[in-house]
Amino acid sequence: MSNMNDLAAALAARNAKTLAWVAEDPSNRWAMTLVEDLAHWADMGVTTAAELEHYLLATEAYESCRAAHGYKPDWSGLMAMTNAELEQEIEWDARVIREEIEREEREEQRERDEQRAHEQAFNAAMTPSGAWSIGDLVSL
Fold first, then answer.
1. Those residues with Cβ within 8 angstroms of residue 71's Cβ, 6 or more apart along the chain or in another chain
2. Predicted confidence band at 130 (pLDDT cuts at 50, 70, 90)?
């Protein structure tokens, strides 16, 4: 029963932290809390605070892999990983996502620069130059 009490306390602590975060800026923050029904977690094989931590890390790794690489990883493979391995996977996926965002930003900047150069060239071509005189032509 001690494990279930620890699980209940872990769930309550996580939910309290989430609600406190939302309360800091309620007009701009929204979040969901974890189910605190211990039977729900037991049905999922989570009966201790340590198992909850592992399950939540595996869930985060699942979602980060999907976001970074576009596929859903094998759940049983994630559950077989250690917490340290899951954290490493999440960090790697975050790095992949950051690099993709940076690449997209560079590409967008390049496109803006090209558009600006095109507009400048067009405007220069369409701007009438001063009239040429016969003397100007003869000196060429």
1. 65
2. confident
